[in-house]
Amino acid sequence: MSLRKARKIISLLLSVLIVTGGILFSGAEIIKYTLCNKNYMSITFSSKSVYNECVDNFKNRIEVISAKSSIPSRVFEAVLENNIPSSNTAVLRLFAGDDSTLYSGNLVEVFENLCIEYLKGNNISYDKNIIHSTAVYAAEVFSDCFGIKNAGSAIAFADKVNRSYSKYASVGMLFIIFSVAMMLIIFSQKSDLKRALYSAFTALGLSLALIGISGLIFNVGCSPMLSPQLYANALSVSVKGAFALSAVLGVIITALSFFGSFKQYKLSQKKYE
User: Fold this and answer.
1) Per the confidence metrics, is the pTM higher than 0.90?
2) How far is CA 235 from CA 47, 86, 108, 157, in A?
């Protein structure tokens, strides 16, 4: 085997390592700072549209409680004006490893006090046990509308990423550094080195773009088992955002590498003129 042919084979293998390392590093970084980042997730989960849908669902279900208890809906809806935790708090609790359902004895007590305050203010007699049961039901409705449930798989995924993130990112970067260092050794001509690097990073960019676009087209990871459904939809939007970021990053890397390769080609052509 000639030295030139051996160099091409080694260069190809190193290019594969660069692509693999780039995917590992970029994938770890994108997931870490999107799907496993509370600030990124809060933007989606606490968006105005999501919050308004939570409020609408809560008000609709409270009307049922109001009809059964003869207590006006506005009494229960007062919790929305009393700094009671909402969707954003549920996300923050989820990332903190706390209860994200938002159901608590304190919430039951808040509803109970609101009901008693209304009844006493209007000189209406009441049964404490019935009011307590009504408050428990109202708290459950609030939890159903604003809390995040069935989040076990999401929590497990975030924990796994947090444990493995540094490993994948480090291995990916090691692959890239090793491959670039080896190319510096096997290519004595700077033009050959640049050509090999541009080709490798063009392949990396195309791979990232393909992963991102494929994820968006085939809705990968867009059927999370979260409830209520509007939170599952919000998580799906977050997943699509991560794939979109991969696609954009891939396009940028491809464009820069292609531009560099084209520039290198033009310089090589001038030498032969």
Assistant:
1) no
2) 12, 16, 28, 13
